[in-house]
Design brief:
The chain is an all-alpha fold. It is about 35% helix and about 5% strand. It has a single domain (about 25-125), classed as Orthogonal Bundle (Arc Repressor Mutant, subunit A). Strands 1-2 form a two-stranded parallel ribbon. The relative contact order is 0.16.
């Protein structure tokens, strides 16, 4: 099930909060363009060769959860300069199934020098990003 399966659309492009508003109230589970924009801004500063977890990004973005970060990464438009592939789960693994982007994510990370162990895990102590203002190693 992808994001498009979870959030219905009017068929005219991305889902807006007005698409799913009920009785004048917005659902707290809707993708929020403002939150997505802030998530994208954080992800853009993760250096090449480093990874961050969904939870780490969420902790930096005000009023955000790891799941919201996942939805935002799944909604990155083609051609937008957001290195979505640098965001992984808290176990140091790629969350996407291989056939739905996981192979591409792994290839992009390996091209940046990120190593995986025999179980498909990334050592977060070696390749983890220390956050804004932290390391800028490439």
């Amino acid at each position: 099930m992808g994001v498009s399966d979870t959030f219905p659309s009017s068929g005219s492009g991305p889902v807006s909060s007005s698409d799913l508003a009920r009785d004048g109230e917005e659902s707290a589970l809707l993708p929020n363009e403002g939150v997505h924009s802030r998530i994208f801004d954080v992800v853009r500063v993760i250096p090449s060769g480093r990874v961050a977890t969904y939870g780490q990004v969420a902790a930096i973005v005000d009023r955000c959860t790891p799941r919201m970060v996942g939805y935002a990464m799944a909604s990155v438009p083609d051609g937008m300069n957001v290195p979505w592939h640098r965001v992984i789960n808290s176990q140091g693994r790629i969350s996407l199934p291989p056939e739905r982007g996981g192979e591409l994510q792994r290839a992009l990370l390996e091209a940046e020098g990120v190593a995986f162990d025999g179980r498909g895990k990334i050592d977060l102590t070696e390749f983890g990003w220390s956050g804004p203002g932290g390391d800028s190693q490439t």
